[in-house]
Amino acid sequence: xxxxxxxxxxxxxxxxxxxxxxxxxxxxxxxxxxxxxxxxxxxxxxxxxxxxxxxxxxxxxxxxxxxxxxxxxxxxxxxxxxxxxxxxxxxxxxxxxxxxxxxxxxxxxxxxxxxxxxxxxxxxxxxxxxxx
Length: 132
What we know:
By secondary structure, the chain is α/β, with parallel strands linked by helices. It contains six helices and five strands. It has a five-stranded mixed sheet with strand order 1-2-3-4-5, with helices on both faces. Helix 2 packs parallel to helix 3 (60-70). The longest helix has 24 residues, at 108-131.
């Protein structure tokens, strides 16, 4: 899903959190698989993406790689309950370019804090690049 909130533009998420994020004034669009997510990203140019690893067709790992290639400045929060499937750790995901990894289940309040941190870090990076 794609989110947008005031000057923080565009973020992606799962269906389960969409109504709560809309309530927080994010604009939300949801993708059910990796290729659809990449298509939405082209349209909405997300600053933050919530990525579930267990997607059909193009899995989360490949979607992460393609997203970092197509949108290198997008912050990606990985949310998954199947990390054992990929035999990886949270550090592995951040080494691959994710902002952070969050195991399921996650409370909405915790997720919202992570989204805000990701968006704020993107703003800080953008401002520091403009100074040079």
